[in-house]
Design brief:
4 copies of one chain form a homotetramer. By secondary structure, chain A is mostly helical. Chain A is built from 3 helices and no strands.
Chain lengths: ~90, ~90, ~90, ~90
């Protein structure tokens, strides 16, 4: 059980929609749509993916990190470190 | 014919791979994988999408924008404006 | 006392360096330097700022959020929420 | 003369304001302000910097790149390549 488990259906629904957006992008390329229109859809898919990531991170902080912090000690430090590295990857991607 | 047309097969291949990455993300959620591992894959898919966008933008500048600029006048200004707005959307997403 | 207090001198030193980078940017514009060279320096300053933000966030999670989580209840939920909103602002900026 | 020359005073004014924002950040750290309030200001400064970058890029495309494209040949290709690399650095920072 992780932080996102209770919202699992919601995440699956959002990821299926993003998968559809990517398939739509391939269709646009295949049908020679205008570059800027494709780029607009890429930005939309990227935002949707980021939004999933931010949700997963919030669930992670409120659940896995919170549990580790309550335990304290090295386990807590390691979880905070790990979450911070994942935040850095999100900010830089 | 747009700037990306000559690289169409390459873009389609990369988009199919990203579609697979998104499907993999849904599978990870469905199988209750660890949040941070899912987030790492989200960052990878986001970077792959951005890379497609940057390729499309370069093709667009070297082809559609270049053609408009050679024509000059208002057509050129409008194309530069449109490309700049798309760049802003990429930077902000 | 906040999470960053023990690293205060380090943050101040980094922010002074970023202030110098911004002043350097203004000097480049004033001296009509080449656009791309200015943009390269803007990217460097942006990365330095983000790096400060990621450090502050890690200190915040390991200190303020950790304390609130140990207290538990609504205080903990509010801190996790607040941190998540700040992470979202970083990812989107 | 570059694309941004005619807007030079505007860029200098914006960069001076960002310099003030960075100095304000150092003051907040020095006065032990709350982490999240500092992070909010970091996001604001980052957005202001990005906005300067997007302006410089638009001026660059409409002026330096446009001129090179009108010349054509290898000069044009090199300018489009160079601009695309700068866009990639902006998107990834």
């Amino acid at each position: 059980m992780y932080g996102y488990t209770s919202n699992k259906e919601d995440y699956l629904r959002r990821l299926r929609r993003i998968e559809g957006q990517i398939r739509g992008l391939a269709k646009m390329v295949d049908e020679d749509k205008y570059c800027i229109d494709i780029l607009t859809q890429v930005s939309a898919a990227t935002k949707a993916l980021q939004s999933v990531a931010l949700g997963l991170m919030e669930d992670h902080l409120g659940h896995c990190v919170a549990e580790a912090v309550t335990e304290g000690g090295e386990v807590a430090d390691a979880k905070v470190r790990e979450a911070s590295e994942a935040i850095a990857r999100l900010v830089r991607s």
